[in-house]
Amino acid sequence: MRICSRNCDLARGRRCDHVNSRGIVCCPEESCMLRLCLAVAVSVAAVSAAFSQSDPIAARRDAMRAVSSATRDGAAIAEGRAPFDAAKVRSIFETYSRSAKAMPQLFPEDSRSGGQTRAAARIWEDRPGFTAALAKFDKDAVQAAADSKEVASFRAAFDRVAANCTSCHEAYRTRR
Ligand code: HEC
């Protein structure tokens, strides 16, 4: 199930994979149709609250997929396959921060299993550690955005933030 969020205010036809404050990903797969988004925005608060509570596993996996898609865009810039674009770079790190802020609410007790989750039991056993790892990811993303002046400084900043992916996954995600 996909719900457009309030954030879905981009021009028609543009992809938008925003994660709103409740962890709802806006139209990640299809392009954002403005009309639909506006219609949904009216009741979005109620709908998104219901969505994130009824399916937190889908919401957190969507949040991580938005992070992953932003990372692919970042890698293209870092590797010189795409030009350095300050607005694009900002939006990559904003996607990280948004997801990091949404994630803590998406791991209720009753979501330890099901929905093909790979969340490790340690998330519930060491909640403070997990929350701290997300807060660090958010903080590093904010710092990286500030540090990224051109492609070289972006590359270094991007590498520093990306170290969070591996360290958190090793601790808090099960291996396949
Ligand atoms: C603080 C912890 C944390 C950080 C930081 C983090 N992740 Fe994750 N990630 C998780 C957890 C936990 C899951 C498993 C969620 C589940 O299956 O319920 C996950 C799942 C994923 C998935 C699988 C999504 C799916 O389809 O189920 C991808 C892809 C991913 N992360 C990419 C990234 C990338 C790229 C970064 C860094 C830019 C990153 N993550 C940073 C904790 C983190």
From TrEMBL:
Care to name a GO molecular-function term for this sequence?
A: electron transfer activity
Highest taxon listed in the record's lineage: Bacteria
Q: Name one Pfam family in it.
A: Cytochrom_C_2
Record-linked InterPro entries: Cyt_c/b562 (IPR010980), Cyt_c_II (IPR002321)
Specify the protein name.
Cytochrome c
Q: Which GO terms describe its biological process?
A: electron transport chain
